[in-house]
Amino acid sequence: MASGMEIDEEHETKGSMWVLDQKLDQPMDEEAGRLRNMYREKKFSSILLLRLAFQSLGVVYGDLGTSPLYVFYNTFPKKIDDPEDVIGALSLIIYSLTLIPLLKYVFIVCRANDNGQGGTFALYSLLCRHAKVKTIPNQHRTDEELTTYSRSTFNENSFAEKTKKWLEAQDLRKNALLLLVLAGTCMVIGDGILTPAISVLSASGGIKVNNPKMENGMVVLVAVVILVGLFSMQHYGTDKVGWLFAPIVLLWFLLIGGIGIFNIWKYDSSVLRAFSPVHIYRYFRRQKRDGWSSLGGIMLSITESIYWPTFIIATLAAVVASQATISASFSLIKQAVALGCFPRVKVVHTSKNFLGQVYIPDMNWILMILCIAVTVGFKNQIQIGNAYGTAVVIVMLTTTLLMMLIMLLVWHCHWILALIFTILSLVVEGTYFSAVLLKVDQGGWVPLVIAGAFLGIMVVWHYGTVKRYEFEMHSKVSMAWVLGLGPSLGLVRVPGIGLVYTELASGVPRIFSHFITNLPAIHSAVVFVCVKYLPVYTVPEDERFLVKRIGPKSFHMFRCVARYGYKDLHRKDDDFEKKLFDNLFLFVRLESMMEGCSDSDEYSLYGQQTQQSRDFLLKDNLNTSTSVADLTISSVDSIVPVKSPLNATPTVSSGPESSQTEVDELEFLNSCREAGVVHILGNTIVRARRDSRFYKKIAIDYVYAFLRKICRENSAIFNVPHESLLNVGQIFYV
């Protein structure tokens, strides 16, 4: 993978042809700068915060709160020889909850959020903004002008700067970081499969308390029915499900808390001795190796006359606990799709108010099938518990390693503090990890297999995506070739607008030359549309579109870059196309205003560039015999901000010629739009070379090709009607 530095050096050696491309197809720095500060963060009211806090009971704390259903069962799978062992195990649970969820996550990890968004991909996005570690080099300095693109600078001699340069120096290190993120993500997805299995199966097992002779198969059947109902409810969305589940979890907490207080008061208050860490030492001294291996069961805590009410509430609480990990899986997969690490799948936005609440139908049913397979296959929560403990501890280790980089690059902590945090976390989590390793053959292999399968899919998809982007970058058409065709592009210009979709934010894609080489006509107006995702959680609507002109006006060629964050979604209507044309027409009007701009303070920064480019822009009848040298000298900076005239009050003295030019071009574009809009999509097929190694052929020719075949087409994502779609195919070999 070529780094940004290597690309810059390559450009510097291209001579006058590259200079020509830059003159005629300049970056969008000015327009991006003009869009700055148009967006303001929403301030949440106290009532809304209380509402979200109440919902979090069902979506977040349900997983942690239902641990009593299975933690002791997995800690003592055989029998309890000494009541003191229960005190020791409970002491371990108390201090495990204190050290990991409370001290590490609540006070430290939760602060490392991307504008409120959490998870491994959110941490990775933070790192991508503070260091050039993104493996797809499609970022541009204009992206840093976004209001949601928060980042900080380093002192050149600081340890953070040295760490940043070390990460950026080699592609191997960037790929290793991404692999770490993907591994953690896959383990969370595995957690989304195991949590419903162990929670629901443990709760269903409560039936045997009142009916000891009941066969285990009946318990499994009840669990499967509950799981099917749980996954069938997901399409209602986290918002509605959260409101439904939050009262259940609140009731569950009150129930187990009340029962615990009553039992301590009436039967045995000596259980309070568990708050003393001395009992942890005594527990290990008595149990020795068995005590050590029971740590795998203790890890599960992190994630009696009133039998039937307790059983019903416990079962409902188990369902709620499952919801937390299922929602997390949907969110992570959405982020992976946006960052080019997962095949395109249908994503449904289930809330109008909150970006993070999504539902992915395909993944929902896949998770359900895998969850049922685990439940039926193991039939008891002991082996599922071993698998669950493995997944949880690996996610924690991944978070620790990412947090070390966050503390250095984002928070600018002293390296000693970052080292202390990392060592302390690794000591605690490494201890648990060594315990779960002893149970790999007793069910702990399950999350490794599940995560390995998802990791393989993500790695292969990302590799193919990167290679496709590199192919587009290195094979793009020079502006000199396009200008040599003349205003008609050497073809018949038929009425209509052609939207050419490309992954390139600059330059003319190869599919365009492939198109005009094989077809005798092209539309009267052409817009190159680039839809790219940035390492930010959202791009405000006012800052989403960047529009500019390519070449002289007589060519009627434009570029539109639509920028999205990993939480943003495309709407399933004509909203995207409408906004694209609104911004295009606004660009034409403002471009005309800029040409007649006087001594306005708002446009003073662009006065010199506008003056230099005015003469060239007004030459609609460009002679195709104009020499390359003449074009190189001319300045064709036609970039202006796409900003609403209602928000801008420039002093503009537009002459009649400028106004007439604006009206004529707007009428021309409107007539083209009325004639019809055609969406031209490139269908690039990736193939492995004949001399490639066998594993590369399997990955590209079979796995990647299969994933491309079953994933959603771009036309479905952009809601392009089939009658307006034109696919342009091309093959390249890697």
UniProtKB/TrEMBL annotation:
It is a multi-pass membrane protein. The chain crosses the membrane at residues 44-66, 86-107, 176-198, 218-236, 243-265, 306-333, 354-376, 388-409, 416-438, 444-466, 478-501, 521-539. Pfam families: K_trans, K_trans_C. It is found in: Cell membrane. Residues 52-303 form the K+ potassium transporter integral membrane domain. The keyword Transmembrane applies. Keywords: Ion transport, Membrane, Potassium, Potassium transport, Transmembrane, Transmembrane helix, Transport. Residues 495-731 form the K+ potassium transporter C-terminal domain. Belongs to the HAK/KUP transporter (TC 2.A.72.3) family. PANTHER family: OSMOTIC STRESS POTASSIUM TRANSPORTER, POTASSIUM TRANSPORTER 10. This is Potassium transporter 11 isoform X2. It comes from Coffea arabica.
